[in-house]
Amino acid sequence: MRILSDTLFALSGLIGGVSIAFIARYFSYRVGKKKHLFDERYKSIHHQAKARTYDVTFILLLIAWALVIVVEGISFSFFLITVLYVIVNITYAISAAYYSNRE
After folding, report:
1. How far is the C-alpha of 60 from the C-alpha of 52, rounded, in Å?
2. Which UniProt keywords apply (predicted)?
3. 86 Cβ contact list (under 8 Å, min separation 6)
4. Cα–Cα distance measured from residue 84 to residue 76, given in angstroms and rounded to the nearest whole number
5. What is the dihedral of CA 92, 87, 13, 21, to 10 degrees?
6. What is the pLDDT of residue 11?
7. I want to staple 32 with a disulfide (CB 3.0 to 4.6 A). Which of 10, 37, 90, 95 is the partner?
8. pLDDT at 16
């Protein structure tokens, strides 16, 4: 019973944190839109930052994948990271095709 309550407590913290992040993003976006902060320079900077974030995430995912194989072997964690890796790459391929056809 204690494990269930600890899990529910942890999940409520996760849900609360995500909710607060969405609310903060919503209000900051509204204020920024009124002040015209989201111009072409802003978009260019953030597109480049997201591209670098993807590169770092890709490398960290590969490192985590290797660590899971070494530490835990072929287990649920391995398959979870494999699914995430496949989803990230499929999303990248679809996005690249969409934006290359768009231009």
Report:
1. 12
2. Membrane, Transmembrane, Transmembrane helix
3. none
4. 12
5. 20
6. 85
7. 37
8. 92
Q: Quick check: helix, strand or coil at residue 46?
A: helix
Q: Provide the sign of the torsion angle of the four alpha carbons 19, 21, 24, 30, taken in this order.
A: negative
Cβ–Cβ under 8 Å, residues 19 and 27: no
Q: Which residue has the tokens 């309550």?
A: 5
Q: For the chain, what's the residue count?
A: 103
DSSP state of 74: S
CA 50/CA 36 separation, integer angstroms:
21
C-alpha 58/C-alpha 55 separation (Å) is 5
